[in-house]
Specification:
Length: 81
């Protein structure tokens, strides 16, 4: 007997769901456009070449001298290949 009121209620609920879903979609679209306009460029990693080819062949490692000015003084026990 109260079918017209139920139909109006369901239309209101559908309109609220529609507004919520499409509101989220529009916010996502605006965020995507803002990201494009901002000119986002990802940082490209730069690989640094090693200064020298010092390889330590000792199992326990080398004694390092951090105050050294050259690579030979930094690790005197390493073997240059």
């Amino acid at each position: 007997m109260l079918m017209p009121f139920r139909m109006i209620y369901e239309l209101i609920v559908f309109a609220l769901q529609f507004a919520f879903v499409y509101g989220l979609a529009l916010m996502g679209l605006f965020a995507f456009f803002a990201w494009l306009i901002a000119g986002y460029t990802p940082d490209i990693p730069v690989f640094v070449e090693p200064l020298s080819e010092l390889i330590c062949e000792r199992l326990e490692g080398c004694a390092l001298f951090p105050e050294a000015t050259t690579s030979e003084e930094y690790c005197p026990d390493c073997i240059r290949r």
